Fold this sequence. Notes:
By secondary structure, this protein is an alpha/beta fold. Helix 1 (8-30) packs parallel to helix 10. The protein has 2 domains: 31-115, Leucine Dehydrogenase, chain A, domain 1 (Rossmann fold), CATH 3.40.50; 141-275, NAD(P)-binding Rossmann-like Domain (Rossmann fold), CATH 3.40.50. Strand 9 (237-240) and strand 10 (248-251) form a beta hairpin. It contains 10 helices and 11 strands. It has helices at 8-30, 45-61, 76-88, 107-113, 125-133, 141-152, 172-179, 200-204, 256-259, 274-292, and strands at residues 4-5, 35-41, 64-70, 94-97, 161-165, 189-193, 209-212, 230-233, 237-240, 248-251, 265-266.
Amino acid sequence: xxAKIISGTVVAAEIRAEVAEKTKKLLAQKRITPGLAVVLVGxxxxxxxxxxxxxxxxxxxxxxxxxxxxxxxxxESQVLALVEKLNRDSKFHGILVQLPLPKQINxxxxxxxxxxxxxxxxxxxxxxxxxxxxxxxFMPCTPHGVQQMLVRSGYDPSGKHVVVCGRSNIVGKxxxxxxxxxxxxxxxxxxxxxxxxxxxxxxxxxxxILIAAMGRPNAITAEMVKDGVVVIDxxxxxxxxxxxxxxxxxxxxxxxxAVKEKAAAITPVPGGVGPMTITMLLVNTVRAAEIAAGITV
Length: 297
């Protein structure tokens, strides 16, 4: 048995088409163009690349996007003042401060300064709390993308045992909170494993759906999964590869080649969860514009 490949590129394209339609509808009915402000402090190469990708994606679906670039030595007070200004600017429905920030800036303070109604990353404590209650303004982009990949690929989590490997605030905890809700596309039994879990394979072999978000290359091996499992690999790790011009290649947290022979379905790296993150940011930005326009869903 060779696994079906769940392509994030394909699912993302489907969702982006839906977002583009919603954007057109907002403009036609309410004369509103959804707006996203992106704040980039410094020139971290990964952050610059990600921000460039966000700008291009916004353009594709009709979202107005502005990137505000600040030097790496910008004081915290200046970043906070900018966030306050963007909170008041009705042109922007979503605000995203690209992380990580330089060490002189307290990331939590900056994230908490964004009003919850414009926190399209879903990181504000109010949005985290509302997520746990099952009443979110917005769901965090990568975890929401994982849910959409499962549902749209025909692997509804309802009634399934989902094992999440990883407990970060960005992926592990929120994806567990999303999938445990008594709601469509969720209603799963969720187990969270982490660095303190003893005998990890005992739990991973019980998974109907395994979500790997550990940040360690090939941490999940074929021996750790049961036949017919559905695997969502959130990890993106650089490993040395002298055959590549760059000197490295990207791999996930799952031993893809070995696990795909046992799994029913699996996401690749790259081309799996990655394209979904920016796509769900677009979803959140348009939803923020709808909320501002008084549109309920």
